[in-house]
Amino acid sequence: MDTGAVADCATAFEACFGAPPEATSSAPGRVNLLGEHTDYNDGHVLPIAIDQRTTVSMRRHGEPGFKVHARSLNRSASFTLDAPAEDPFARYVQGSLVVAASTGMQIPTMSIFVASNVPMGVGLSSSAALEVATLRALRELIGATWNDVLIAQLAQRAEIEHAGVRCGIMDQMASSLAGTREALWLDVRSRKRRLVPLPAGSAVLVLDSGTPRSLASSGYNTRRAECEAAARLLGVASLRDVDDPRAAVGLPEPLNRRVRHVVTENARVLRAVNTGDAADFGRLMNESHASLRDDYEVSVPALDRLVALLQAHPLVFGARLTGAGFGGACVALCQVQALADVAAEVLSRYEQEGFHGSQLVPAM
């Protein structure tokens, strides 16, 4: 836990609510290196946590209802556990409390303060960081015995049931379990997992395309429904049960291409966790972007151009969009000593072509 962020949030909580918090905890955002749109298909993913975190402070107040203030949004909201919160950001907090109550725990009314430097709307799982941080702070406040896997499962339920995003569990597991120096290989079906070091001599660069995206209003839920329809036609429980992309040949468009992406993306993750070679890992990232662009159709022109500029840079091993797509961020694997130069050169060229990008994550 970032002790500086915790102290800052506690101080801000007291300034906002007039008394110190009883519990404070935090959780990181994440960037996904490989394994996009495979988690809700029971597949394989490879995220890594980022240094930016969301911190949540809480204090019981003994009054009706809940109060929450989000510093980065400069917004406050009030809600109960009996009806959906009106403010969209509050739904993530409320949803986390509601699913916690469903475990049988008594949830006291409280004041809640949220401080975050996780970039929002760019595919770095700011929502998962908020959910996990809320549940961690609640665990501390009420003395719950939830382990980090259960925290992730509760956070996923909060997003599905209360924010309206039919997400897989990758984001929440990464926020709850991953570190910032090693990627987390996760078999979503079995929950088997292990930490995977980055290839020697490499580092992660995350750039924003300048095109925001919103999961709940995008084609994310449509893609999930298409995968479910394809699984039914193939007679399998999920696309995880398909190993050969040729199985999709007889399916109608676009289901055949959705299946091809999921099957080949799972294979790319498994190859990546067994290679220590940065060039091999980068080639897998490049293949992943092409698949996400052409077979899964979740890229946009700005992302494609930014990724192409990164892939063409001689000090970049590979690059791809990260997150659900439809805008947001891309991730590149670079030579470790070249992050600053790559970011400056690529963003300058991107700006010259009329786009507006930025570096999102400090050197990792």
What would you note in describing this structure?
- Strands 1, 2, 3, 4, 5, 6 and 7 form a seven-stranded mixed β-sheet that branches. A four-stranded antiparallel β-sheet has the order 9-10-8-11.
- It is globular, with a radius of gyration of 20 Å.
- 40% of the residues lie in helices and 22% in strands.
- The model has no long low-confidence stretch (mean pLDDT 94).
- With 364 residues, it is an alpha+beta fold.
- The relative contact order is 0.15.
- It has two domains: 193 residues, 2-Layer Sandwich (Ribosomal Protein S5, domain 2); 161 residues, 2-Layer Sandwich (Alpha-Beta Plaits).
The description of the largest β-sheet is:
7 strands, mixed
Output the helix-strand order: HEEEEHEHHHEEEHHHHEEHE
Helix content: 25-40%
What CATH architecture of the largest domain do you see? 2-Layer Sandwich
Beta-strand content bin: 15-25%
Please give the oligomerization state of what you see: single chain
Radius of gyration: 20 Å
Net shape: globular
What structural class should be given to the helix and strand makeup?
alpha+beta
Tally of structural domains:
2
CATH class assignment of the largest domain: Alpha Beta
How many distinct helices? 10
> Could you tell me the number of beta strands?
11
Calculate the terminal CA-CA distance, rounded to whole Å: 17 Å
The mean pLDDT is 94
Which stretches of 5+ consecutive residues score pLDDT under 50? none
CATH topology of the largest domain: the name is Ribosomal Protein S5, domain 2
Summarize the structure.
This protein is an alpha+beta fold. The protein has helices at residues 3-17, 88-101, 126-142, 148-162, 170-177, 220-234, 255-272, 278-294, 301-312, 339-352; strands at 23-34, 44-60, 66-70, 75-79, 110-116, 182-187, 193-197, 202-208, 316-322, 329-335, 358-359. Helices cover 40% and strands 22% of the residues.
